Amino acid sequence: MTESVERVKELEQEAGRACGIGKLLHFDYDKVELANMNRLFFQPHQAALSKVEAAEHTLRNIDPDVAFEVHSYNITTVVEHFEHLMSRISNGGLQDGKPVDLALSCVDNFDARMAISTACNELGQRWMESGVSENAVSGHTQLMIPGESACFACAPPLVVAANIDEKTPKREGVCSARLPTAMGVVAGILVQNVLKFLLNFGVVSFYLEYNATQDFFPTMSMMPNPQCDDRNCREQQEE
Ligand SMILES: [Zn+2]
């Protein structure tokens, strides 16, 4: 009995080390709703919990060796929250006081993407953007290296730029995306690129689109825009 418990512990530790991610910082102001169940990994009993709290509970059960730091606030509405986000990006690395290795944007609105882009340009922080269109049949991932590749303000991804519905209020309790699989595929591509980037193998596309109806995955690189609206992006380009 003891032996098998120890073996399970060993296997858990091996699983934790397999991807080499030591610490996850998670920012989200939202609460879990029953309408999320079709497409996110939350469970019905977690309804009304903050999303970061629910996610931490689930992930801690899967891998107790990863350090989690969660913040339940909106990065776009309160200046202090935005500043706190910036300070955690620059000091919240695995080694305290060091920056994180990579920031990920997995949000559903323009303002939050812009806030992440602004923070990362100011800090020179490498980050990856991801998203799925409102009709859930296309998505994208994009790698941003300040000064070297296009930032979000240089050229927002086409699916986001064309997404005119994004700013209109969503109906209470109604989830617009009905293809959880498209989100799953884009999330998988994002994580694949995160591992390639952090572990330095293979090619990480600067921009990768996923068209679910055609099984089409076009990629491209985007140079930064010398006339970008973000001053920090222009300064990073000069450096
Ligand atoms: Zn830019």
TrEMBL record:
- The THIF-type NAD/FAD binding fold domain is annotated at 18-228
| Pfam families, sorted | ThiF (PF00899)
Any single biological process term in GO: protein ufmylation
Q: Care to name a GO molecular-function term for this sequence?
A: metal ion binding
- Quote the InterPro entries the UniProt record gives: ThiF/MoeB/HesA, ThiF_NAD_FAD-bd, Ubiquitin-activating_enz
This protein's UniProt keywords: ATP-binding, Metal-binding, Nucleotide-binding, Ubl conjugation pathway, Zinc
As for family, the record states: Belongs to the ubiquitin-activating E1 family. UBA5 subfamily.
Q: Which GO terms describe its cellular component?
A: cytosol
Q: Which domain of life does the protein's organism represent? A: Eukaryota
Protein's UniProt keywords contain Zinc: yes
Q: Which PANTHER family match?
A: UBIQUITIN-ACTIVATING ENZYME E1 (PTHR10953), UBIQUITIN-LIKE MODIFIER-ACTIVATING ENZYME 5 (PTHR10953:SF9)
Organism, as annotated: Myodes glareolus
Protein name, entry field: Ubiquitin-like modifier-activating enzyme 5
